[in-house]
Amino acid sequence: VSLTLGIGESATTVDAELAGFTYQPLGTFVYADKAWLAQEVPGSEATTALLTTGDGADADAVRRAVSDLPGVVAYVDTSALADVYDRYSGLFYVFIGAMLALGAAMAFAIIFTTMSVNIVERKRELATMRAAGVRYRAIARLVGGENTLVAALGVIPGLVLGVIAARVMLQTYSSDQFTLDLYVRPLTLLLASVAIMGVAALSQIPGLRAVRRMD
Fold first, then answer.
1. What is the pLDDT of residues 147-202, one digit of tens each?
2. Percentage of the chain surpassing pLDDT 70?
3. CA-CA to 39 of 20 to 30 Å: which in 67, 95, 99, 137?
4. Is residue 204 within 8 Å of residue 115, measured between CB atoms?
5. pLDDT value of residue 3
6. Domain residues for 191?
């Protein structure tokens, strides 16, 4: 409902029971029953109506039927609006993809460096173990198990902080007319965990090869 007010005029509000919340990524709207609106706000006229259809409805037939009604000036299909949004969000998706690629490269570099440094710093200890007759496989299991455990302990808090950071970043793009919510599938978290553990395992190969070459 829009009110035309001038300087010095007053506005009166009415009590209304909130039936629920609607989520719309574009725009901020409040919906009210037409009969209730006519009773509580006499003289008001509805200029916009929300039309919901059942499953299997023919979108084109609904558009034609509604557009032919007297007084209808425009008909906006929410699915068509979503298609337009997706079409114009291409640059945003490219930006997000670049951030994901750079983040993955940085994560690989950090994990690889951490694993390699851990083995290099223990080079004297591992050489002593080799000299004492400890077999290479035993050393590999010991070092690999420790590094894998450290990586596993960091996966859960890392994913939690990552989701929180992503949600905060998306909120910086939101306004009263445009909203971006974060949805993370469980499969995404699972794949991220597998990728991290895989990188942690591969990062140990160069260091363990150096241990094998120790004399």
1. 888 888 888 899 999 999 988 888 887 776 677 778 889 999 999 999 888 888 88
2. 93
3. 67
4. yes
5. 65
6. 90-212
Report how far residue 139's alpha carbon sits from residue 205's, in angstroms, rounded to the nearest whole number: 13
**75 neighbors 63 (Cβ within 8 angstroms):** yes
d(CA 207, CA 126): 11
Q: How far is CA 179 from CA 88, 174, 175, in A?
A: 15, 5, 6
Helix, strand, coil in percent for the chain, rounding step 5: 60, 0, 40
C-alpha closest to that of 158 among 205, 203, 114, 92: 114
Please report whether residue 126 resides in a domain.
yes
Dihedral sign computed on CA atoms, order 85, 90, 92, 97: positive
Does residue 60 lie within any of the structural domains?
no
CB 116 within 8 A of CB 200: no
CA atoms within 13 Å, Cβ hemisphere of 94: 5
pTM over 0.70: no
The tally of domains found in the chain comes to 1
Give the tens place of pLDDT for each residue, 3-36.
Answer: 677 787 777 777 888 888 776 666 667 788 878 8
Q: Per the domain annotation, does 189 fall within a domain?
A: yes
> What interhelical angle do 136-171 and 186-212 show, nearest 10?
150
Is 15 within the bounds of a domain?
Answer: no
Q: Are 203 and 110 in contact (CB under 8 A)?
A: no
